[in-house]
């Protein structure tokens, strides 16, 4: 960005929806940079003309409007925010090109390798499928555990929240919520000491304190996400137990 002039608040607009982890990630990025903006809450069952005009390809939130120009896709927006306001706030991407490439690599890892088995674990019926998904999720969580332990830093790329932390951020509040609904603990201090400490630090970090995840509001909304999720939630509420071979994972 050539022009590093301070933006008037009305020049930046974020189209979002309260439950969206992608929107929350963008809010956290804007908070790191100290950017003021106007927030527009979308009804995704009745999308506004503005949203459809600004994101005609995906028709999804988040969309960031900067000087009237839209930026869509949360990962693209986060990088854009870091570049557009490079002169203020904390750095989201590292300065070093190789470290930047590695940060992007781990973002892809979270999307492609980690999130799918966690979602599968949450939505699977008790039995082999649930056990296999748990095993797959734990295997990938171990990769992150080792990465964090090796780095020896508070966050993935340093002493403050950066790109990888933001992309993993939703899991820091979603995993405990899933654990509570299913009644199984996946990330414990014993199994994943570095990762569980990171979760605590992340949830306590300034951007997350600025925009806390709407956990209590989200819990019942999980029921609306899909039949399988509804099934998992209802099964738990009815007091049915997880399968017998998963006793070691059960919440105490
Ligand atoms: N890849 C997108 C995903 C965004 C996304 O899935 N947004 C959801 C809300 S969580 C949405 O707008 N859904 C509306 C729809 O699918 O019609 C990103 O990272 O921004």
UniProtKB/TrEMBL annotation:
<dbReference type="GO" id="GO:0005737">
    <property type="term" value="C:cytoplasm"/>
</dbReference>
<dbReference type="GO" id="GO:0006749">
    <property type="term" value="P:glutathione metabolic process"/>
</dbReference>
<comment type="similarity">
    <text>Belongs to the GST superfamily.</text>
</comment>
<dbReference type="InterPro" id="IPR036249">
    <property type="entry name" value="Thioredoxin-like_sf"/>
</dbReference>
<protein>
    <recommendedName>
        <fullName>glutathione transferase</fullName>
        <ecNumber>2.5.1.18</ecNumber>
    </recommendedName>
</protein>
<dbReference type="InterPro" id="IPR045073">
    <property type="entry name" value="Omega/Tau-like"/>
</dbReference>
<dbReference type="InterPro" id="IPR010987">
    <property type="entry name" value="Glutathione-S-Trfase_C-like"/>
</dbReference>
<dbReference type="InterPro" id="IPR004046">
    <property type="entry name" value="GST_C"/>
</dbReference>
<feature type="domain" description="GST C-terminal">
    <location>
        <begin position="96"/>
        <end position="231"/>
    </location>
</feature>
<dbReference type="InterPro" id="IPR045074">
    <property type="entry name" value="GST_C_Tau"/>
</dbReference>
<dbReference type="InterPro" id="IPR036282">
    <property type="entry name" value="Glutathione-S-Trfase_C_sf"/>
</dbReference>
<dbReference type="InterPro" id="IPR040079">
    <property type="entry name" value="Glutathione_S-Trfase"/>
</dbReference>
<dbReference type="Pfam" id="PF00043">
    <property type="entry name" value="GST_C"/>
</dbReference>
<dbReference type="InterPro" id="IPR004045">
    <property type="entry name" value="Glutathione_S-Trfase_N"/>
</dbReference>
<dbReference type="Pfam" id="PF02798">
    <property type="entry name" value="GST_N"/>
</dbReference>
<dbReference type="GO" id="GO:0004364">
    <property type="term" value="F:glutathione transferase activity"/>
</dbReference>
<keyword id="KW-0808">Transferase</keyword>
<feature type="domain" description="GST N-terminal">
    <location>
        <begin position="10"/>
        <end position="89"/>
    </location>
</feature>
């Amino acid at each position: 960005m050539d022009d590093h002039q301070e933006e008037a608040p009305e020049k930046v607009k974020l189209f979002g929806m309260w439950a969206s982890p992608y929107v929350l990630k963008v809010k956290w990025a804007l908070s790191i940079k100290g950017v003021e903006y106007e927030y527009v809450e979308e009804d995704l069952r009745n999308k506004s003309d503005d949203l459809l005009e600004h994101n005609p390809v995906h028709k999804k939130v988040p969309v960031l409007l900067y000087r009237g120009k839209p930026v869509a896709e949360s990962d693209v927006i986060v990088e854009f925010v870091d570049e557009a306001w490079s002169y203020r706030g904390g750095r989201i991407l590292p300065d070093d090109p190789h470290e930047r490439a590695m940060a992007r690599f781990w973002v892809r890892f979270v999307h492609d390798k980690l999130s799918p088995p966690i979602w599968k674990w949450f939505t699977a019926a008790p039995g082999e499928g649930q056990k296999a998904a748990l095993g797959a999720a734990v295997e990938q969580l171990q990769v992150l555990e080792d990465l964090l332990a090796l780095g020896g830093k508070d966050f993935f790329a340093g002493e403050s929240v950066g790109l990888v932390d933001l992309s993993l951020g939703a899991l820091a509040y979603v995993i405990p919520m899933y654990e509570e609904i299913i009644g199984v603990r996946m990330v414990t201090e014993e199994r994943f000491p570095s990762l569980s400490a990171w979760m605590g630090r992340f949830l306590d970090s300034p951007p997350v304190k600025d925009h806390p995840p709407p956990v209590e509001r989200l819990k019942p909304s999980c029921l609306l996400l899909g039949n399988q999720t509804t099934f998992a939630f209802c099964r738990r509420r009815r007091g049915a137990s997880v399968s017998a071979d998963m006793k070691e994972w059960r919440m105490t």
